[in-house]
Amino acid sequence: MQQDRWMGIDLLESPKLIRWAIKSDNLQNDQIILRKYHPEMGKIWPGSRQTASGGLLQWELIMPLSEPEVEVVPFALDWSQSDMHPTEVLESTPFKLNEIRLTHPEPAKIDQLLHELNVEAQVVEGTTPIIQAQLQGPDGFLIVI
């Protein structure tokens, strides 16, 4: 039996945002909150790797589920044990994340969960879960779905 790949990649029917992450300063607290949403959420996994420059990236993350295709509830990452944050070695980009917009059949439930995680995102009602990211760039705004 073949195991599903990470984050539900096997479920993709078209290119789209299917998961998103938040920075966590307290994974144990976030774990409790996420398990209230779904009992299988909240597994904390460590990871590490050497960077090309010889630095060490270390993280812990609350693993996202492999289903559904689009999960509007974020997974959480803690980079506090790393020598650096991975964004410190990225080339600068003219784009900035301006807003996350989420569509879900139960927006009040998702809004409450995000509030408990101290995350701001616009949540609206819709039949299909959708994640949209609004980026601000040199020529204005761009919506990525």
Short description:
The chain has 145 residues and is α/β, with parallel strands linked by helices. It is built from two helices and eight strands; from the N terminus they run βαββββαβββ. Helices cover 14% and strands 32% of the residues.
Structure description:
The protein has 145 residues and is of the alpha/beta class. The protein is 14% helix and 32% strand. The chain has two helices and eight strands; from the N terminus they run E-H-E-E-E-E-H-E-E-E. It has helices spanning 27-37, 107-116, and strands at 21-23, 44-50, 56-62, 75-78, 96-104, 122-125, 130-137, 140-144. The strands form two sheets. Strands 1-4-3-2 form a four-stranded mixed beta sheet, with helices on one face. Strand 7 and strand 8 form a beta hairpin. The longest helix is centred in the first third of the chain and has 11 residues, at 27-37. It is globular and about 45 Å long.
Task: Sum up the structure in keywords.
145 residues, 4-stranded mixed beta sheet, 32% strand, 2 helices, alpha/beta, 8 strands
Topology of this structure?
Layout: E1 21-23, H1 27-37, E2 44-50, E3 56-62, E4 75-78, E5 96-104, H2 107-116, E6 122-125, E7 130-137, E8 140-144
Parallel strand pairs: 1-4, 5-6
Antiparallel strand pairs: 2-3, 3-4, 5-7, 7-8
